[in-house]
Amino acid sequence: MAHSCRWCVLCFEGEVVFCNHYEKTMSEKAAKRTNKCPHFQFIPFDAFDEIKYDPERGKKKGKKADVKIETMALF
User: Fold this and answer.
1) How far apart are CA 15 and CA 27, in angstroms?
2) Given this model, what pLDDT does residue 45 score?
3) pTM attached to this predicted model
4) Residues with Cβ < 8 Å from 66, sequence gap 6 or more?
5) Residues 6+ apart with CB under 8 A from 28
């Protein structure tokens, strides 16, 4: 399952973004990128914006097709 460090309890953001498990710093862009880290522990708050997790956020809304049904008159 793909996830990003920004939703992990082991990720801290201060002057730099820090992974507590690997004990290394990373860029904000790297923390927001999806990955498959085996040590991921979900927390429902974003490390950067402190917003609550919403699984629908960021999904593109599909446009509903306007369906027009026309009837033909046969003479």
Assistant:
1) 11
2) 85
3) 0.64
4) none
5) 13, 17, 48
